[in-house]
């Protein structure tokens, strides 16, 4: 089993490898293939890094606008997803009624739904929040429901035998058991919520990282475009690891490394 130190080494090697391949590809495109659009198609990574450094303040401000709305929508969608999962776990009838609608709701593309939401609420910030919540609630609900349904019946029967009510069973058994499933759904949903908020930015917002991406495309500002894309990627990575940190704080027992068995000297 790979330890944390080895994982960090592997991650560093991967990052260096990607940068080297990218640098070589940019060089080949410009000086070997002699593509006149090389600098626009694939700029050198060091020029993108320099653009990030020079424009960090404006990119940070734009990113925070998008990220904050995505975070609110993520929290709202997660709450709705958890509530739906609990309701469906309490009643088989409700699960049979609600689950097909959950599936159908995910068939609507975000790019098609976002203009509809904006035309209803007439507020870009609210639209970002609603779309981020819409993206979030499904993976949270499905994973949470899977966790609640995975609790063994004999454990529930044991609590029933000591006169525990439904609330106590959920509090003492069902919720703790399903937390790992919940965090799996949250880790899936967090980057998706950021992506959804970025897409809404592109539909006519005056601020946000999606606006930076769109305007840089229209103005042929290739380095700004790539810097904005990397900022968006960083936002998704940050959202994922925020959930990872929350999981480690809420479920500390999962971080305990198994003891290695071996022959003692």
Shape: globular
The share of residues in helices is: over 70%
Beta percentage is under 5%
Give the count of helical stretches: 11
Care to give the gist of this entry?
This protein is mostly helical.
Write the layout of secondary structure elements.
Elements lengths: L3 H29 L5 H4 L3 H10 L1 H35 L1 H14 L4 H12 L2 H26 L3 H9 L4 H36 L7 H10 L3 H29 L15
Describe the protein in words:
With 265 residues, this protein is mainly alpha-helical. It has 2 domains: 1-44; 56-253, MetI-like fold. The chain is built from 11 helices and no strands. It is globular, with a radius of gyration of 23 Å. It starts with a helix and ends in a 15-residue tail after the last helix.
Keywords:
MetI-like fold, 2 domains, 11 helices
